[in-house]
Amino acid sequence: MLQQTPVARVLPVWHEWMTRWPTPKALAAEPSGEAVRAWGRLGYPRRALRLHACATAITERHDGEVPADHATLLALPGIGEYTAAAVASFAYGGRHAILDTNVRRVFARAVRAEEYPPTATSAAERRLAEALLPELGAARWGVAVMELGALVCTARAPRCEGCPIAGVCAWRLAGKPAHAGPARKGQTYAGTDRQCRGRLLAVLRAAHGPVPKAALDVVWDDVVQRERALDGLVADGLAEVLEDGTYGLPA
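^ that's the sequence the OP posted. Answer follows.
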């Protein structure tokens, strides 16, 4: 849930989710469509399908227990390097480098004197993160760096005057040189296929049953874009077309 989504948005959904599905087995016992419904407005709803698939795999392969081993976690559906490292470290105390957006920004500034990290995580960043890991307390270190980036070393308005590592920060000591790479573009949403997909999916989530095509047609005026978005939802497994031509969440 925290991938590409801030804690403030995730927290209420997470509480509802954990009340309903406190274990992987509980989630795996429900249809995947219920995971999509409970995902609500968190965005990127394919993550809900991946989480359901992950819960199913944990139930089938590991008797419902989330594995502690990093490599075993990576073998689960929907689990990438960041999530595997975070679970292995935070849940089980393993020594793994956790590279989220905030951590990458802290390392870029503090070590490389760069205002922002590259667009995609590089091998050099991973080597640096692993080199900086302490032998003891790696999980606490990971949390500390993430919080430093989220609360102090922020993207737009870093609070250097209150930063605990200001005295050794290479970027601050270099005079805070401006970003020299490609211009950072904010993501647009209004009028995009993502917004259209969200509108369509909201109808399916609220219906608790099959929905006639007409109920989907009224939520977006652009026919071509609407049909493209609807076809995309079906192709991604987020919606199903039933034999009578109605639509619903995956069963």
